[in-house]
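Person: Please work through this fold.
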Amino acid sequence: MNAVPTSAGCATCSNATHTLNTALLPSIFNDAIGPVMRGPSSSHCAASVRIGRLARDLMGGDITSVLIEFDPNGSLATTHDGQGSDMGLCGGFLGWDATDARLVDSEKAIRAAGIEVDIRISDIQASHPNTYKITLRNDAGEHVLVANSTGGGMIEVIAIDGIPLHIDGDYHETLLVTHDDPDPIIKKLSSDPEWDEVILGGLGTPSIIQVKGQRFVPDSSLVDLDVAFENIFNLNPVLPISSRRDMTVPFITVDEMLTHLGKDENQGKALWELAVDYEAERGALERDEVLARMVAIVRLLKQSIKEGVAGTEFEDRILGFQCGKFNDMMNAGELLEGGMLNRMILYVTALMEVKSSMGIIVAAPTAGSCGTLPGTVLAAAEAMELTDEVAAKGMLVGGLIGIFIAAHSSFAAEVGGCQAETGSGAAMAAAALVDMAGGSVRQGLGAASMALQNCLGLICDPVANRVEVPCLGRNINGAANAFTSANVSLADFAEVIPLDEVIATHNDVGRNLPSSLRCTCLGGLSITRSAKAVEAALDLRGT
């Protein structure tokens, strides 16, 4: 077992230049399969809901006005409206979650609640393309929260009231603000094993003592201290899988996983069982619970697909209901012979159309790529007459490949282009298909490697600031990529470049793409004459 540290940096990675892109050890249910949500973009909608909920907690649930600032050089300056950041933030300020059916009207609801919201593009010196600077006010005062959306609905708070700190939403966070000497507080709380971590934020005054735990610090723990607190904030966790003291995982690279597989007790395990090994240890879950959670996700996805095929409507979208005609033609034998692949196209399209109509989807790994992995897995399961449990095992395999990508690259199109979203989804789906077909661990990893190789350099250039075009086509192509990569890997075609090395290349290539091709709507198809005409028509429709 490898005790991989929860601080940034992969102490056990075979590539010395490799570092984890987050202070968290990724979780299948946090990072790769989830969140369950509504909206066009997980990095815009689900992440902003989570940021908004933390901002609400900072104000004790009492907000009278909000100033939201986006940096002109970041992605959000051009995408915050069309991709749902404003909608998600307003929902979060109201205390809603990412599945709330009222989200589509959250901006109206927040005005009805008497909360003034001002959105500005300002030079906030953001170091991340998805940075939110939020100034919140009520009758008691003002507080400023700065946070980043890091991809797939994951977030990080990086400062409160100008004091640097780090909050990922995986703990109950108690923030103790004082102008007094913080040492007595830190000494007392650090000596209590109940608190997972006690951190001092700020080198001057005031200080923030950040206490991470499985519950908030009670008043009784702060008695007998000659310390005056200016503020005490309690921020609830926003992720489904919490973190804890001395958290470890059995592996964090493919090479380490193969070493784990080589141990006597792990001989003969399939990829889905290795996924359970990882998530059970990461999340302190029983093995049966890991599978049961994924079965529940499979059943939710099946319902979303059913709704998509039956027909969806939503005014603010580019594409209408298309999968119904495809289904009719497929059933009538009027399409080119495609078998399982045609069913994958249908299910991918159904999920993408549900997403675009504000229905419930699962970001797997993101909302922009929500069709590739689930649509592929569920179509294959139906074609092969497999149970929901077997489909869930396939989704777990996809989640496992996602763990390696989350740890050593990114799912954020703003960081790595569409290769970070549908490219990752294709790799996850390819390995899932091999496992569902009874292939070996080696074949599953080979399929993931080939699928990801096929997507390197894929840009993100949404038309009219909506996550529909070319996103639908790229999700469909992701399914086809997964299907072909799985089949050739089952036939023992050589991937040549191991998956760990492909993921490292995925990270390098994505970060070297021009910012105009990374979900800013400043390049690619986004700026074509036709795209601008579509955008103008949608804007006119919304007035």
